[in-house]
Design goal:
This protein is of the alpha+beta class. Helices cover about 35% and strands about 20% of the residues. Helix 5 crosses helix 7 and helix 6 crosses helix 7.
């Protein structure tokens, strides 16, 4: 548990995603850094009786965040409560923004009814939160864009997600990974909820410091740009960076090959890296794709939303980190019915050598961690054939 806490403290956030073709994404960053830990231990920290993490949005990403950061996000909850959707500080899914604009006009008081239902019956799912059972259809004469055809957000879902954005309700647990909502005061510790609130400026400053700690070395856009570790409007973020330089908490540095000004976090470790890891598409090391390309010369885009005919490297593609370089892309799938870790595609980077043995060892370690009996490599490339030989049996 100490090692899990150490990693979470260092990265500051674990992104949540519903895709389960391999395993849920929030488990993978810990495996990359710790090896075969028990996923149930992380579950207890996230949703157990004595939880140490809570769910909210890290920028626009659904995430698991240490309770110590709860007060850093209260200002965003307050901004969502005001429903000033033009405010760049507001963090809310587009379905909430569009849906609430309609609900305020068509169904005034509806959000209060949903909140009362949570108070009476929570924890409940979004599907259980409708006070009247009315369901909208995408075939309505004037369909709500928030209902859509893909996500099918109903009014109760819009209302309860809005309440989640404002901090009135939070995620009490998961049922088959479906969110269960309850009143925040019934879920989070009293000490967390009663901690003194920070001003927006104070919270932004702490968030930039957390970003710097997690990244080690970064440009201003890496720290807090639109795709930064914690996105913030540049008008508010850049003065914070200047102030942290003045106080000695960030050190201006120049990175060879990168023209932009970079900043080194005080206390960042400087030593050779000898890593070996399969990285989730949502790992904080690579979730800023521009930074990944700039530092590692590795152009990477997630493939799960790409039509099958247009995929180049597979469906759920994980970069492979070896030493201090990203050296390959691996398409992985957990075939739970046949207890096999499937490797249909593996693509080495140009010039990458001696990959088969370390990659096979990582596949074997991952299969064991996921309680799968074997590794099945069907990739037909030269590297794929070598991996098949090494993992057979």
């Amino acid at each position: 548990m100490r090692e899990i806490r150490r990693v979470v403290d260092r990265v500051g956030v674990l992104q949540v995603d519903s895709v389960n073709v391999l395993t849920r994404s929030h488990y993978l960053p810990l495996f990359a850094r710790l090896g075969g830990y028990e996923r149930e231990r992380l579950d207890r920290l996230c949703w157990g009786e004595k939880r140490e993490l809570f769910e909210y949005f890290w920028g626009h990403k659904a995430a698991l965040i240490p309770l110590s950061s709860y007060r850093l996000l209260r200002w965003r909850m307050r901004a969502a409560e005001r429903q000033d959707w033009s405010d760049p500080d507001v963090t809310a899914p587009w379905s909430v923004v569009v849906g609430m604009q309609r609900l305020n006009e068509e169904r005034p008081g509806y959000v209060g009814q949903v909140l009362k239902l949570v108070e009476e019956r929570g924890p409940i799912s979004a599907g259980e939160a409708s006070p009247d059972g009315v369901r909208r259809k995408s075939t309505d004469p004037h369909p709500d864009p928030s209902t859509g055809t893909m996500w099918n957000w109903q009014d109760a879902k819009i209302a309860i997600e809005y309440l989640f954005c404002t901090g009135r309700v939070t995620i009490a647990g998961r049922r088959n990974f479906e969110r269960l909502y309850d009143l925040t005061e019934r879920v989070l510790p009293e000490a967390v909820l009663e901690a003194p609130e920070l001003t927006a400026d104070e919270a932004r400053r702490e968030l930039v410091k957390l970003s710097a700690k997690a990244l080690g070395i970064a440009t201003a856009k890496d720290l807090c740009g639109a795709r930064g570790y914690f996105p913030l409007p540049s008008a508010t973020a850049r003065p914070i960076i200047s102030d942290l330089v003045d106080t000695g908490e960030l050190i201006p540095v120049q990175v060879e090959g990168i023209p932009q000004q970079s900043y080194l976090a005080v206390g960042a470790e400087d030593h050779p890296i000898d890593a070996r890891a399969l990285l989730s598409p949502f790992d904080t090391l690579i979730w800023n794709r521009d930074r990944t390309e700039r530092l590692f010369d590795f152009f990477y885009r997630i493939s799960i939303y790409t039509p099958a005919a247009q995929r180049i490297h597979g469906y759920y593609v994980l970069p492979f980190l070896l030493g201090d370089r990203l050296v390959a892309r691996v398409d992985l799938k957990a075939d739970r019915q046949n207890s096999a870790l499937l490797v249909p595609t593996v693509t080495p980077e140009p010039g990458a050598k001696n990959l088969a043995e370390p990659m096979a060892a990582e596949f074997t370690k991952m299969a064991d961690w996921l309680n799968l009996d074997r590794v099945q490599v069907t990739a037909s490339s030269k590297l794929g054939r070598a991996l098949s030989e090494l993992t057979r049996g």
